[in-house]
Amino acid sequence: MASPQLFIILAIAAIFIPSISAVEFVVGDDKGWTVNFDYQSWAQGKVFRVGDTLVFKYPQGAHNVLRVNGTGFQQCQAPEGTEALTSGNDVITLATPGRKWYICGVSRHCEVGNQKLFITVLPQQLSPVYSPAPSPSPSSVPSSPPTSGADSHYGWNTPAPSPVPGYSEVRKYYPQTPGSATGYYPKTPGSATGYKA
């Protein structure tokens, strides 16, 4: 029979290990959330997972953050009743896998200033070790490449990527350096509040 102390240690580890592996992404790195910035290039190459956070930094009152769907992203319009984040240090916890779209709803910042972000969030990885995945069977390999074109860049014509079974990514801390495109930051407890995506 397992001791009560072992049970308590395992329970505590189960609570804290996922938050240790979470990453905090400052949207736009040192530029923050602003107009005339290519957020798709910023997001390219980054791996967003459930439990990670997005931090939108901007001068309070100059911008806001609205979570929209693919149509709202294309049209730069939020559905009626969409809650705007306006603190200037808005933190969004990525709570579910899938596609996420964010825009600025101030003036025409989205339409004219391209102030919008699209990402795909993958499921959380609990194991920080690499284990090779089995080779896909010939029947599971697609016969044709996914749809391409301008719309596929923003995710409404392509399927969301699915993680390869048996593969766990090792996530490391990369300090932000001027001109760097890495932008991975460890999540720190007590960050500013926001809403879950």
Automatic annotation (TrEMBL):
Signal peptide: 1-22
UniProt KW Translocase keyword: no
GO MF term (any one): metal ion binding
Subcellular compartments: Membrane
GO BP of this protein: response to symbiotic fungus
Domain Phytocyanin: 23-123
Keyword Transcription (UniProt): no
Main subcellular location of this protein, as a coarse class: membrane
GO cellular component: plasma membrane
Topological category with respect to the lipid bilayer: Single-pass type I membrane protein
Region annotation Disordered: where it falls in the sequence: 129-197
Keywords per UniProt: Copper, Disulfide bond, Electron transport, Glycoprotein, Membrane, Metal-binding, Signal, Transmembrane, Transmembrane helix, Transport
Protein's name according to its UniProt entry: Phytocyanin domain-containing protein
